[in-house]
Amino acid sequence: MDKKRIAVPLVCHGHSRPVVDLFYSPFTPDVFFLISDSKDSSPMLRNGETGDWIGTFEGHKGAVWSVCLDTNALHAASGSADFTVKVWDALTGDELHSFEHKHIVRACAFSELNFLPNTEEGTSTFSAIVDIFSTDKAIRADTIILDTHLLLTGGVEKVLRIYDLNCSDAPPREVDKSPGSVRTVAWMHSDQTILSSCTDMGGVRFWDVRSGKFVQTLETKSSVTSAGVKMVDISQLQMDIRLSSGMQTTSLEPKYGNKFIAGGEDMWVCVFDFHTGGEIACNKGHHGPVHSVRFSPGGESYASGSEDGTIRIWQTGPDS
Questions:
Q1: What is the C-alpha separation between 291 and 206, in angstroms, rounded?
Q2: What pLDDT is attached to residue 202?
Q3: First CA to last CA across the chain, in angstroms?
Q4: SS3 call for 320
Q5: Long-range contacts of the stretch 172-179 (C-beta < 8 A, 24+)
Q6: Is the per-residue pLDDT at 156 higher than 60?
């Protein structure tokens, strides 16, 4: 066998049923984190580099279909078949909020990082010590607030909702009704645009947050089961990379955007060249279909979650 196809991953046990979603936090001052969900109803938080278990969020009464961490990795959210989205304190594991829905929740996402002047004491948004540099100036760390207080949800109801976690008792905002059951959601353009896809139809749809109105559709031939956001010049990009029909999930390398990973029914986790579509590496270790793959925030490793209930963390290596 070609040496590039031989890899020994870190294997993370703990879930008792299939792992269906994974999410990496951005880098924090200490480490980056990996959160997973499962049909066992108990999301788990891990050290993103070593895979070491940190804690389990307990409280859902049904399969959990979607998980995410906020920019600071201080809070987690999970969407479940019990018709709720729960927000958790990622440090203590305590449940902070539980938002009732009318059907299964398949997707959730915290708003992205916004930089605001810290001009008031006692502000309700999160503060942190960070170093931020633009091309022409540096911004003092003690003048920054990390504002990630919005939570986006979607699911079988065909409704996209935006919850303000600073006003958790207020009803959520709703955007135009989705044409189908929502499978994935993401924020774009400094939280001014929402991206979503549907389980039962093709296409990626874009919604304007301020007006709550549908903007446009990026057409696809089949339903989109995995979506993320990386800033690229789409006017210079026209691609149609065809993978095997069993592929269920993909993730784009976050630093350079020059490769992506994919996994699916054949239990393999493959790495592809983004520009040519050529296969770079192909790793096998799972004993069931792969439901989720995600690159770590620096691109030096990637994780896969499977029907076999395990998470595997693979190193990209210097040659890939």
A1: 24
A2: 87
A3: 17
A4: coil
A5: 172/99, 173/212, 174/212, 175/207, 175/209, 175/212, 175/213, 175/214, 176/207, 176/212, 176/213, 176/214, 178/154, 178/205, 179/205
A6: yes
What is the residue whose two structure tokens read 């770590």? Answer: 296
DSSP symbol at 143: G
C-beta separation of 156 from 181 below 8 A: yes
How do residues 190-206 score in pLDDT, each as one tens digit? 889 999 999 888 889 99
Q: What is the DSSP string of 170-192?
A: SPPEE-SPPSS-EEEEEEETTTT
Q: Determine the distance from the C-alpha atom of residue 262 to the mean position of all C-alpha atoms in its chain, rounded to a whole number.
A: 15
Query: Are the beta carbons of 67 and 303 closer than 8 angstroms?
Result: no
User: What's the pLDDT score for residue 116?
Assistant: 39
> CA angle, corner 85, sides to 82 and 86, nearest 5?
110
Output the six-digit token pair for 312. 């595997």
21 three-class SS: strand
Q: Per the structure block, which two tokens stand in for 76?
A: 């987690």
Ramachandran sector of residue 122 (left: φ over 0; alpha: ψ -120 to 50; beta: rest): left
Cα–Cα distance between 183 and 53 in angstroms, integer?
27
Whether the predicted pLDDT of 241 surpasses 70:
no
| Cα separation values, 194 from 54, 156, 178, 210, 221, Å | 31, 17, 12, 10, 21
Query: Is the distance from CB of 295 to CB of 23 less than 8 angstroms?
Result: no
- Best CA proximity match to 295, nearest among 32, 87, 89: 32
Contact 118, 143 (CB under 8 A): yes
269 pairs with which residues across the strands? 263, 283
> What pLDDT band is residue 29 in, cutting at 50, 70 and 90?
confident
CB distance 90 to 73 below 8 Å:
yes
Taking the C-alpha atoms of residue 268 and residue 248, their distance in angstroms, rounded to an integer, is 11
Q: What local confidence, expressed as pLDDT, does residue 227 receive?
A: 53
Q: Which residue has the higher pLDDT, 99 or 226?
A: 99
Cβ distance 152 to 194 under 8 Å? yes
The pLDDT of 131-141, averaged and rounded, is 29
